[in-house]
């Protein structure tokens, strides 16, 4: 759900190679999933559905890890799906519109006049992230209260205290605040709680037995915790689900997610007119979904990230193909995993990664010259470099630590976020490269 430096990008751009025949090499896909599990590069679950029928399902890794106690993930394991929740929320909004209880032109001041520009912000603006409401998860202090329960009044006050980032409909800017507010509007209009309305209008209607609004994680319900890898899998902090609400509080399984998006596109949940509006892109985003390209093909869907959970849901209309992948722990970038999955499905040239050990091996004392606090004149962010035995650890201001992998002399990477760091100990400098940007940091004395 949250967006910040050192996380994977919101949109997944897949554009590689040439698509040939569509023979599906299941053993090759098994090989990819096997090595991801064996090398501790990912944990999670994948479902692929064709014409509404599951043709591949696989779970790897664990849903719970505590010392020597481990619960293997299964196809019944539930994951926090983060911003894929927005597709469910948008669907329910259009259901209310079709019921005549709401309009795209309805302004927010009818329900929450305390929000900035409430009289100018429409339901449409909230749906396609053109409201100007500031994204509360971008605020540095968010990390200090994300694990604490919040009431609706609390969240509205948090959203209302920030000035608008821009005037409504002026431009696109992804904001979780938009969908939190949409969830509260659903409750106002339907006179039901968001979890109950979700159950009545979607999950019970199409038989999603493993999809609901989450609370505190409960392994007895087959719910998964999420993990970061620092020499071993370590449990990540757990966001209180009262905070993301309609923007990111749903838990589900890949199998349920495929049923949901297939039902949406087969018009079992909304009319063709509503679906068309949801699919209409403005500045790259529709209403609760966006397009995911893969070479000459294009899917509709969404992805999500909350705590250390990541997820993707994609539906290719021309192929009647659905891919749903949820992970509760990843080292190898999710984008690269999805490229592999789709390349194998579409029978494109693809080599299974080997994940051989890095070409450079360092002793713990070799890392001492890199340790310290680094700052930059280019961005207001400090990075602290520490070590854990022979692993270098990086932690940016107000963010979680992550391990760096040595690739060459003075060069390290963190693949999940596409980060490269190159140190120059003699000059007390470190160069950070991420997303096409290069930032020079200097070690503080």
TrEMBL record:
InterPro entries: AmpC-like, Beta-lactam-related, Beta-lactam/transpept-like. It comes from the Bacteria. Residues 45-332 form the Beta-lactamase-related domain. Coiled coil: none annotated. This is CubicO group peptidase, beta-lactamase class C family. It comes from Chryseolinea serpens.
């Amino acid at each position: 759900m949250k967006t910040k430096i050192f996380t994977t990008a919101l949109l997944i751009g897949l554009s590689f190679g040439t698509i040939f025949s569509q023979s599906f090499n299941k053993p090759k896909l098994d090989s990819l999933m096997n090595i991801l599990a064996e090398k501790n590069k990912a944990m999670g679950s994948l479902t692929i559905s064709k014409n509404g029928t599951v043709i591949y399902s696989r779970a790897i890794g664990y849903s719970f890890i505590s010392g020597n106690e481990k619960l293997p993930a299964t196809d019944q394991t539930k994951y926090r799906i983060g911003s894929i929740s927005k597709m469910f929320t948008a669907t329910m909004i259009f259901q209310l519109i079709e019921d005549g209880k709401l309009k795209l032109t309805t302004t927010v001041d009818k329900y929450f006049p305390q929000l900035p520009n409430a009289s100018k912000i429409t339901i449409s603006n909230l749906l396609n992230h053109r409201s100007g409401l500031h994204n509360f998860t971008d605020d540095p202090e968010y990390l200090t209260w994300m694990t604490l329960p919040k009431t609706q009044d609390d969240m509205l006050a948090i959203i209302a205290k920030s000035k608008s980032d821009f005037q409504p409909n002026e431009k696109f800017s992804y904001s979780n605040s938009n969908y939190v507010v949409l969830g509260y509007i659903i409750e106002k209009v339907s006179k039901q709680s968001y979890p109950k309305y979700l159950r009545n209008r979607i999950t019970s209607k199409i038989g999603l037995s493993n999809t609901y609004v989450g609370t505190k994680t409960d392994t007895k319900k087959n719910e998964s915790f999420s993990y970061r890898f620092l020499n071993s899998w370590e449990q990540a902090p757990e966001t209180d689900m009262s905070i993301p609400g309609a923007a990111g509080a749903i838990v589900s399984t890949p199998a349920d997610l495929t049923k949901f998006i297939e039902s949406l596109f087969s018009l079992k949940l909304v009319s063709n007119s509503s679906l068309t509006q949801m699919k209409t892109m403005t500045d790259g985003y529709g209403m609760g979904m966006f397009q995911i390209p893969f070479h000459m093909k294009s899917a509709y869907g969404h992805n999500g990230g909350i705590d250390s959970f990541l997820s993707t849901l994609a539906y290719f209309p021309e192929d009647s193909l659905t891919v749903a992948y949820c992970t509760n722990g990843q080292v190898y970038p999710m984008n690269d995993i999805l490229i592999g999955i789709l390349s194998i499905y579409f029978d494109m040239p693809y080599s299974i990664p080997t994940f051989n050990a890095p070409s450079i091996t360092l002793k713990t004392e070799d890392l001492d010259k890199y340790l310290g606090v680094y700052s930059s004149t280019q961005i207001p962010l400090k990075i602290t470099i520490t070590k854990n035995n022979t692993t270098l650890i990086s932690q940016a201001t107000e963010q979680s630590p992550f391990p760096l992998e040595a690739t060459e002399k003075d060069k390290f990477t963190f693949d999940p976020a596409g980060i490269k760091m190159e140190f120059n100990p003699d000059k007390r400098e470190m160069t950070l490269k991420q997303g096409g940007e290069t930032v020079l940091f200097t070690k503080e004395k």
